[in-house]
Amino acid sequence: MAIKLALLVVFFGIMLAVGIHCRRHATDVNGFVLGGRSVGAWLTAFAYGTSYFSAVIFVGYAGQFGWRFGVASTWIGLGNAFLGSLLAWVVLGRRTRLMSQHLDSATMPEFFGKRFGSRGLKIGASIIVFIFLIPYTASLYNGLSRLFGMAFNIDYTLCIILMAALTCVYVVAGGYMATAINDFIQGLIMLGGIVVVVLAVLNENGGFMAAMDALARVEDTSVTTTPGAFTSFFGPKPLELLGVVILTSLGTWGLPQMVQKFYAIRSEKAIHKGAVISTLFAVVVAGGCYFLGGFGRLYGDRVNVAADGYDAIIPAMLENLSPLLIGIVVILVLSASMSTLSSLVMASSSTLTLDLLKDNVVKDMDEKKQVLTMRGLIVVFIAISVVIAIVQHKSNITFIAQLMGVSWGALAGAFLAPFLYGLYWKRTTRAAVWVSFLFGAGVMTLNLFCPSIFPSILQSPINCGAFAMLAGLVLVPLVSLITPRPERELTESAFACYEAKVVVPVKRSLGD
Length: 512
What we know:
CATH superfamily: Sodium/glucose cotransporter
Radius of gyration: 22 Å
Number of helices: 20
Helix content: over 70%
CATH class: Mainly Alpha
Number of domains: 1
Strand content: under 5%
Largest sheet: none
Structural class: mainly alpha
């Protein structure tokens, strides 16, 4: 216990020290929300990766999909790395940085408002962000509480209040820069921690080959009658596996807290370097998490999935490790959760302040008031997420993957297609953006409250979220082609940022 507590104290001390140190970077809106648009490759790449992967991945998704697909769930981690990280940086990174700066937008709703010349789009997008980031934020605590309960045997409520309070302090104090630096530190912990944990679990089962042999002998006729299915290349249910890969990989392209990382990156060189770093980070962290979860069925005698849910699988795999390793695991998941929580509340507070309150509710809101409002809203949003997490835990409403699936599906279903086409296609219309907003958010809301009206394959929020994203990619160009063209002056002004000359067009190089 002394070892585990010492690790926690040191970890929390470093996080708070960084927040206090970064106060000087958070005196105006640009500094507080975007770090002055001068964040380098390593910090941006780690901020992207640590915002991507949280306790939702490590405890919820790794446990659930490792149990369902076996070691084939590793494909989810690889999809996260190459589709959710590498391709996202290549396709979105440079254009997002250029157009967001050209339009002077600090948030995704503000981007929609200025890119399509619509105040209504900005307000609508900010409402969607506010509503659907809440279930995702609340889901972070549940996975963490499982591990804290295993390691320290402390009350769930105390656990989440402690984590929330510490995250709140360093984000309120240092803004985006404090979040980015702490994300880098937390990312290093995640990289080392996941490698150590995977090796320890394999060693506990006699090594890699012995663990694979034991997993190949596991039978579950309710899932498949194929021998060795849980060690096969694509697992027992390849199509369901593909749906999870799409949701968890392509979904990041439309998540405000992820895309906003590109707004702040410093230079062309940083974009290229950041793409490589974030991809390697995802291979190790996401690939390692899902690979670890793939061996969950070897612990079927320790966990009752029907009674305790999928979230109990990973804690059961780790409970017999040494105190030092358990301490490392707790810090690993704490790092993942705090980094994601800080990213979510930054996105929520900046969106509500800049896109909803400023000029609409509060007139003449100067920079000082904007920063103060964002700091206040960070406290409010973290408090709301804590209350929801406690209520959800005590009423046992649902488990982690459902909460995250609804959130990711609604946000990415609403935003992915219009954001992507908005960066690349001048013909994208305001009406098409509205259709995507309403379809993505509407479908996932119906799926949450009335899942029975959907075909069986879409009753899962995971599959439904993937469907909403893919449907948006079809709906936006279709609606754009049958609705009046956008104003030429508006689109030419937005796309002019790509044509400024350095040695080559700026769409090929930021010119640094």
